[in-house]
Amino acid sequence: MSFYFLLEAIYFMLPAYFSNMGASLSRKIKFLDFLNKPIDFNKKTKHNIPIFGSHKTWRGLVAGILSGVFIAYCQKLLYRVDFFKYISLIDYNKVNIFVLGILFSLGAITGDLIFAFFKRRQNIKPGMPWIPFDQINLVVGTFIFVAPFVQIEIYYWGIILGLTFFLHILGNNLAYLLGLQKNRL
To answer: How many whole angstroms separate alpha carbon 22 and alpha carbon 58?
Structure first.
């Protein structure tokens, strides 16, 4: 595997990565505080277990979608530059960039929510590590939402899965050192 394949995979996933980061860092965005309400409306199962948890908010959903759509739009603009055209797995001129950004964002966020649901069933508290699932949930969700509409070779999804695992750990530790993350992996 060459550096070129890794660069292509990372560039392809940027809207999902930024959507995930945008949702996570949304607590720092004060003008979205009015959306700081749990997606699950604080509902619990019959065993008194939160569906997703109070930390999965509408604010994170909106910030995540806006982040992903913004990055996808930037990729469309950058597609005019030969270097970015060269590392692009898709032709950004032939897709509806807003739909693509929403698919990447919803995929990343939905993957996170699905795994949060199962994480709560394992009695793992929010913010506590659940390796490897915390690291790959956004890839699984993105694959489900994006793969039916964007055709890339299946080995790229394998590269993306492995790469995301390591990038998530690196990013989490960096965010912890910068004071943006409460827990370290």
So the answer is: 12
Q: Where are the alpha helices (DSSP H) in 2-57?
A: 3-25
Collect all residues with Cβ–Cβ distance below 8 Å to 88 and sequence separation of at least 6: 8, 11, 12, 75, 79
| Long-range pairs of 178-183 with CB within 8 A, sequence gap ≥ 24 | 180/25, 180/28, 181/24, 182/127, 183/127, 183/128, 183/129
What is d(CA 125, CA 153) in angstroms, rounded to the nearest whole number? 36
- State how far the Cα of 163 lies from the Cα of 152, in Å rounded to an integer: 16
pTM beyond cutoff 0.85: yes
| Domain ranges, residue 170 | 3-177
Asked whether residue 50 is domain-assigned, the answer is yes
How many folded domains does the chain comprise?
1
Return the amino acid letter for 27. R
Element (H, E) at 117: helix 97-121
Query: Is residue 160 included in any domain, yes or no?
Result: yes
Output the tens digit of pLDDT for each of the chain's 185 residues: 688 889 999 999 999 999 998 988 887 788 888 999 999 999 998 888 889 988 899 999 999 999 999 999 999 999 999 999 999 999 999 999 999 999 999 999 999 999 999 999 998 888 788 889 888 999 999 999 999 999 999 989 999 999 999 988 888 888 888 887 777 77
Task: Determine, yes or no, domain membership for 13.
Answer: yes
Q: Is 184 a domain residue?
A: no
